[in-house]
């Protein structure tokens, strides 16, 4: 009986305790609605974000954000920046959220508030057949073996952890990392699916997948920690759109096939990597 009384007292105290000033002052959702614009930080990272030849954007996260903004009754405004700048510029208030295939990590969670996951993927390795030779394990332990990755990504962290003796080289975009592999600047690439699978399929005479997944990741939208009202709306929206099948259909389109490569041709076309 006493335990029950203590529980009831705690509940009553919680119900009558006023909200903290920070919670009461959270106008993030109303701020976006009033402005009629949702500013979204994006970085080319196919197939989540693809820069089209006409300057517009397409991709998994672009489709999600456009639907999210439409349901919110506002217009999505995409602000392009390097992947490594996404979190700092969100923190400075230059955008309202990030949508760029950004993976949930404990380190990033110190700076941003992640939404419910919008997708789950695997990080894998694709490598040059000739460079691997007859002993791939030995090749991957050479300091001269260069592995291309997207800078400041979970791919980079996974590559350094899995191949501590190889030379992990970061590039500003996934397209630049792929170009480095295709033109011989690097001997392997660590990236999030479906990019490794797609690269091995397109360049099967030159490249092949090696080993199993290095890690599994969950991608999500990211918000400023104080914008809890906007984050709550996003979480509820993701739940509703998962139930009605919309998010699943978008994922199937962008991750289960290569049709999107036509859209991404300019972004992923192998060009000589910057030296």
Question: Keywords, please?
Answer:
D-Maltodextrin-Binding Protein, domain 2, 275 residues, disordered N terminus, five-stranded mixed sheet, alpha/beta, 13 helices, single chain, three-stranded parallel sheet, 2 domains, elongated
Explain how this protein is built:
The protein folds into 2 domains: about 25-120 and about 220-270, 3-Layer(aba) Sandwich (D-Maltodextrin-Binding Protein, domain 2), CATH 3.40.190; about 120-215, D-Maltodextrin-Binding Protein, domain 2 (3-Layer(aba) Sandwich). It is built from 13 helices and 12 strands. The protein has helices spanning about 1-15, 20-25, 30-35, 60-70, 85-90, 130, 135-140, 155-160, 175-180, 195-200, 230-245, 245-255, 265-270, and strands spanning about 35-40, 50, 55-60, 75-80, 95-100, 115, 120-130, 145-150, 165-170, 190, 205-220, 220-225. Strands 9-8-10-7-11 form a 5-stranded mixed sheet, with helices on both faces. The protein is elongated, with a radius of gyration of 21 Å. The N and C termini lie far apart (about 75 Å).
């Amino acid at each position: 009986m006493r335990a029950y009384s203590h529980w009831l007292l705690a509940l009553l105290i919680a119900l009558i305790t006023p909200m903290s000033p920070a919670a009461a002052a959270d106008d993030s959702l109303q701020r976006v609605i009033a402005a009629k614009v949702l500013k979204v930080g994006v970085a080319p990272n196919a197939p989540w974000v693809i820069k089209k030849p006409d300057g517009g954007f397409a991709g998994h996260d672009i489709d999600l954000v456009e639907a999210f903004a439409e349901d919110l009754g506002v217009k999505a405004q995409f602000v392009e920046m390097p992947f490594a700048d996404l979190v700092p510029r969100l923190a400075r208030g230059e955008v309202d959220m990030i949508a760029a295939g950004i993976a949930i990590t404990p380190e990033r969670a110190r700076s941003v508030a992640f939404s419910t996951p919008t997708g789950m993927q695997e990080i894998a390795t694709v490598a040059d057949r000739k460079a691997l030779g007859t002993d791939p394990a030995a090749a991957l332990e050479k300091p001269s073996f260069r592995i291309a990755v997207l800078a400041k990504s979970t791919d980079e962290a996974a590559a350094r952890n899995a191949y501590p003796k190889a030379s992990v080289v970061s590039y500003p975009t996934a397209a630049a990392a792929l170009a480095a592999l295709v033109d011989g600047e690097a001997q392997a690439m660590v990236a999030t699916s479906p990019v490794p699978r797609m690269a091995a399929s397109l360049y099967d005479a030159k490249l092949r997948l090696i080993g199993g997944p290095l890690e599994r990741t969950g991608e999500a939208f990211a918000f400023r920690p104080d914008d809890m009202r906007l984050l709550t709306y996003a979480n509820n929206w993701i739940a509703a759109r998962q139930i009605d099948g919309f998010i699943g259909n978008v994922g199937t389109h962008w991750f289960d096939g290569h049709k999107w490569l036509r859209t991404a041709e300019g972004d992923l076309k192998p060009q000589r990597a910057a030296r």
